[in-house]
Each structure stands twice: as structure tokens, then as C-alpha cells.
Amino acid sequence: MLASPDARDRPRSPNIQIYRPQLTSVLSIANRISGVFLSLAAIGLVAWLVAAAEGPQTYLAVQGALASLLGRIALFASTFAFFLHFCGGIRHLAWDAGYGFELRAIYASGWAVVAASVALTVAVWIAALFVMS
Amino acid sequence: MAKRTRSPLGRALGLGSAKEGVEPWLRERAAAVALIPLTLWLVASIIAHTGDGYAEFVAWLKTPVATCAMILLLVALFTHMSLGLQVIIEDYVHSAAKTPSLIVMRLACFGLLALGILAVLRIVFGH
């Protein structure tokens, strides 16, 4: 919407600065932030494929960059963002289907998303390091 | 005069709900559901091929399942990404930059999708 003709500076609600963070609101914005972060990872996925299509040299250069400390931090962050968005997305799909709207269920599924995202991220990295060794 | 000769149906068409407003919302969810098995496949494949060289990587992507899954993943991924970023832009960009942002974002998504599919095909079919 364009600015209304009566564009006085009115107070807004919720006032983010004094709004106590709750699991519900934090996970809501986390789903968006992880989505934006994963969009960057999607650009990385295409760059990785293009590098591989260019030939072994460029592929190995990209693999080397990913194996560096900075590369691993980016990969780890992407893994966590992926599982947060993945688990949060399944929670959203359940809501879209009409399930899990009771307050208890919302908090239970919210904490389940947090726990599953952390557990799956750690599990993936342990598995990958196990395969590599 | 022209107004008076239009039927009530003719006046109503194009205004209000055309029962299609839910379509982008539904497409975002459909892509999300498709991404559940596809992204799990990608994560599992990356784990299984950690530390592989170039030849092994190409041999893996050349298998029909991997080729199809990677292309389907790119289609679902950039469909979901485009629709998701559209909602974010519509929610937070209220200036005149809104429409240009939407156009640039969608073109970028289509461009990345084309680039990704082309890369997969180049790897699979050689240069």
C-alpha cells in the first residue's frame, strides 16, 4: 500500500522495542530469516553446479573453498537454517491443514522444531565427518 | 450509454474475488511438499559423497535418479523461493521500490533456475 493521505506518524503495534519475545514470535521470524538465508544458499548451490560444469579445476577450487574454515562455517549455518526452515515448514503445513492450533500444541511443536533442528544439524555433521574419515 | 448496456455479470467480472487469489499460496505449499523428499535426498547424497573427487561426483550426478532429482529440486526450490521472497517483499517494502524489487527478484529466480538446470545438463552430457 502506498502512504495514506493522512500520513501522520501514528504509534504502531506491536511495538517491537518493548515487546517480550516469545517462542511463537521468535520462531515465526526465524522461519523468514532462515528462508532468506537459504535463498543465499540456493545461489551457492547453483554456483557449485556451474563450477562443476566448468570442469575439474573449478570444481576442486570450490570444494577447497567449502572445506576452508569460512566455508565450513557457511555450510554449518546453512545446515542449521535448512533444518530450522524444514521443521518449521512442516509445522506450518500441519497448521495449513488445520492441525495443532491449541496453545499447548503450538508450544509443544515449537520446542520440537528447535530440538529437531539442533539434533538433525549435529547428526548430519557427525555423519559427514564419519564418512570422510 | 455503454455502462447501461452492460449485463450485471459483465460489470462484476474482474472485480473482487475471481477465486484465483489463493493460487500462489497453494503453489508455495505444493513446492514445499515436493521439497521435503528432494532436499532430504540432497542432504543424504552430500553426506554419502563427502570427500569424493570430481570423477565420482560426475558419475553420481549422471545416474538417472540423481539427474532427475537435481532438476526437480531446482524447479521446486526456485518456485518456493520466488513465492516466499515475494511475500517478504510485499510485507516489508512499502515504497515505490516494491514493484521493481519483485520484478528483479523473480527474474533472478528464473535466471538461477535456468543456470542450474543448464549446469546439470552440461555435467551429465559432457561439454
Residues in helices of chain A, as a percent range:
over 70%
**Beta-strand percentage range of chain A:** under 5%
N- and C-termini, Cα separation of chain A: 56 Å
Taking all residues together, what is the mean pLDDT of chain A? 92
Structure commentary:
- The complex is a heterodimer of chains A (133) and B (127).
- By secondary structure, chain A is mostly helical.
- Chain A has helices spanning 23-54, 56-67, 69-96, 103-132.
- In chain A, helix 1 runs antiparallel to helix 2 (56-67), helix 1 (23-54) packs across helix 3 (69-96) and helix 3 (69-96) runs antiparallel to helix 4.
- Chain A is extended and about 60 Å long.
- Chain B is mostly helical and 127 residues long.
- Chain B has one domain (23-126): 3 helical TM bundles of succinate and fumarate reductases.
- The termini of chain B are far apart.
What is the compact description of this entry?
The complex is a heterodimer of chains A (133) and B (127). Chain A is mainly α and 133 residues long.
How does the SSE layout of this entry go?
The complex is a heterodimer of chains A (133) and B (127).
Chain A: H1 23-54, H2 56-67, H3 69-96, H4 103-132
Helix pairs in contact in A: 1-2, 1-3, 2-3, 3-4
Chain B: H1 2-5, H2 8-12, H3 23-48, H4 54-62, H5 64-92, H6 98-125
Helix pairs in contact in B: 3-5, 4-6, 5-6
Characteristic terms for this protein:
heterodimer, A: 133 residues, mainly alpha, B: 127 residues, 3 helical TM bundles of succinate and fumarate reductases
